Amino acid sequence: MPEPVDFGRALDCIARESADARPLHAVRPATLDGFLASLTPAQAAFLRATDFTGEAQDLRLLPGEDGLAGAVLGLGADRSPFAFGGLARRLPAGSAWRLRPGDYDAAGAVLGFCLGAYRYPQFRAETRATARLVVDGADEAPLAEAGAVWMVRDLINAPANLLGPRELADAALALAARFGADAALIEGAALAAAYPALAAVGAGSARAPAVVVLRWQGSGAGAEAPLVSLCGKGVCFDTGGYDLKPSAGMQRMKKDMGGAAAVLGAARLIMQRDLPLRLEIRIGCVENSVSGTAMRPLDVLHSRRGLSIEVGNTDAEGRLVLADLLAEASDAKPALLIDCATLTGAARAATGPDLPALFCNDEAWAESLLRHGLATHDPLWRLPLWEGYDGWLESTIADVNNIAGKTHAGAVVAALFLRRFVAIGTVWSHIDLYAWNDQTRPGRPEGGEAQAMRAIVSAITDYVNTAR
Length: 468
Fold this sequence. Notes:
This protein is an alpha/beta fold.
């Protein structure tokens, strides 16, 4: 059986050269008349006769003397990479194409083409060859971004029977080895001592929990370079524990490690770009199962921060995983601390599946993340760290409960819980994401999704370049 994730797989939708590449035009309604005037009379007549108006996602194949002379894609008003996201699967199988200049961002077009070409290939033979885009030495940035997105999607799409805690940890270790980063794998007694709340989450599974800590420094980063720390929730499958999820609630729980996947994708891009910073990554790899050794409702857990935690609900396990990681990460005094997690259904109720919820304790950094999210078409939406709800986490027998005794503001309360484990003075942001596409759309096939990754990397790139 193939490995669940192939870190060596190339972007098979890209060709470096092709003598038979056909021209691919991208046109907006406002430029349509000028474009039609540039075509042969027969091609222009064909587009007029078929009512081509340049609306978004309208694709037409242009006839020629030898059959197929080219293609034209309508862009409408869409300025996102996803305007090009349907091409790889709609153009003739195995054909090669070269984008012609037009009113669009060339790098975004390459990225969108690649995002739409993605399929998870490990367990089904591909029956149709994808169309290919010739890049001819174009900027490598969109190809690097697409490669990171493919990796993240592969990790999330991998079935939980093949991607458990150790396999996720191995993926992090493989990424570290690829870029020459220092990496430590913590398991067993050492993990229980260093990350007791995280260990309690994984105690119910036959597959032992693991933590990976990755450290890397850019070639242009000295000892005083900013330290950026990323933490990811890596719950490889979440049954809910003794507070068992209904069957419908478990359908997509292989994606509960989507935060860890997004963090690994961000780390890959940061290292690939050789940004001038010091980087720390912490991935908590666990499975939340039901057994005689699983944590129970109303258990009281120790934590790395020294706070005792009453388990109000065993299905609120992700925040327990992150609590220990955030405590360790923030004690290293990073310039920026970011965590990513598929944490709450409440965030999805508030912002829907496409908008990860952002919580942040620093106005300037929050604004930067939001701005870069919009610029990269990888948007976030900010929700408040509302002080008035912090008291909802009080426990009668421990320092804090892992849930509130209320049915409201679940995403806010989860963020407030995490904040208690972050060292005072740390610039920290928490991103509660869905990590999944419920249905296929151009550039966004159904399945795992690398949400917030490109926004995070863009904002960090801006931060370190400004700080120099």
